[in-house]
Amino acid sequence: MRTDVLVAQVRAAFERVHRAVFLGDPVANARLSVDVVDVDVVHDAPTLVLVLVTPWTVNGLIFTPDDAFPEALEIAGRRRPVFRVELTGLATFRSVNLPVDTAALRSMAQARTLARSWVPPLHQAIRTALAAPALGGRSGPPSPAGTPDEGPARC
Fold first, then answer.
1. pTM of the prediction?
2. CA–CA gap between residue 100 and residue 105 (Å, rounded)
3. Per-residue confidence band for 46, with pLDDT thresholds at 50, 70 and 90
């Protein structure tokens, strides 16, 4: 899939979530909008990684060529859970929360800057996980049909 098409699909899908779930919710920062601040292919496999800013969170989205991916990534020295997500309008993907307090952000420029600061550690964590010997070069067992503890996340 072309990255520009995927970026447009991600924006549209998360804008739908914003309108349906978070519009007017006090947890959402009204100064922020949905935006993809980075898209890149990571590792030898065609694993597409996007960093997404929304009014309620900043996430790394991982689109893998198959369903095998670890349940957690070590990002900047901290283990972070990876969730398997099914969202209307997108292929199944993995999502990892990046530690940005969106409520405190004053502008999209600030949100983009903070989100971009997580790109190198996220990419490194994915490269490390995909290079591990388990699963033919992938780290850890494949994620189950849902998130690590709760079944598939659906929006």
1. 0.83
2. 9
3. confident
